[in-house]
Amino acid sequence: MTTTEIAVSSVGALALDPTQTEWTEPQRAALAQLGIADAPSGDQLVFLHQAQRTGLDPFAKQLYMIKRWDNQSGGYRHTIQAGIDGLRVIAERTGRYEGRTPIQWCGEDGVWKNVWLDPSRPPVAARCAVYKKGFREPLEGVAHWAEFVQKKKDGDPTQMWATKGVHMLGKVAEALALRAAFPQDLSGIFTPEETAAEEDTAAAPSGPGKTIAESVAAEYSQPSGEPMIGPAQLSEIASRIRDLGLGKDAALELYAEITGREVPVTRLLTQKEADAVLEELARRAEPAEPTGDLVDAEIVDDAPPTNEADDAQQEGGAS
């Protein structure tokens, strides 16, 4: 079954037709709920083309278009992303995918290892190769840590890369190998691990519902089966953050510190996590208490007299 046939087999008002050249009205309404209705018409047509070409369903969160700020152009741009599982699905649908090699990592010595066991430092690179029917040798992808590690504005790795950097780099290597093996099907489609996380957090909501960036973050980081933050908690957190004068980066770092995971937007906190955040914000708002290290001391005023009465009193004492 070809990619096009997979797309045709979808049912429902949002089903993609491989022959359509514009989004239908129901599809446009769904795009508005996903937060990308304000994307330029050209970007929306590219998104439609990629959905048709890959057979991935954007309304089932298999394919994403994310709005992010681009410092170089000084404006927003839209990029198309799919999870690593989406890339694997596309590769399998071609009928020419024959698996991959185990992911390997290496340090500065260039020795490749099947498992990275050094917690004190990240690997320098990761590699993976994909087998494709009709090719004599597997097609390899090599990902260098320095090129793909995602960093915060202070230069430190983001929470996910700091705690799961080996796994993240391995997924980048596999994505590179899959794209090298199937360029016609995967060209222009990148995974979140290959793009800058800091830019993802700058995605601006547009229209009702969740933005695509929030959907991506929810899929990769949201705890399943737990009640999410409520409106009252959202309002209180925003108020306390404003009162403390915390910037966006500081707030996100606080979320990551408390939850142990990436939380790009406040709405992705669970109720339990929100309570923990509020407790920490309340603690920071309390006035600092004496440390107990202070000692009593007599205050001696060595300053010279500042008025005539003081001068007279000093002269009388001297006589």
From TrEMBL:
InterPro entries of this UniProt entry? Phage_lambda_Bet (IPR010183), RecT_fam (IPR018330)
Bilayer-crossing residues are none
What are the boundaries of the region Disordered?
Answer: 282-319
Q: Highest taxon of the source?
A: Bacteria
Could you state a single Gene Ontology molecular function term? Answer: DNA binding
Q: Which GO terms describe its biological process?
A: DNA recombination
Q: Which NCBIfam families match?
A: bet_lambda
Query: What is the name listed in the Swiss-Prot or TrEMBL entry for this protein?
Result: Phage recombination protein Bet
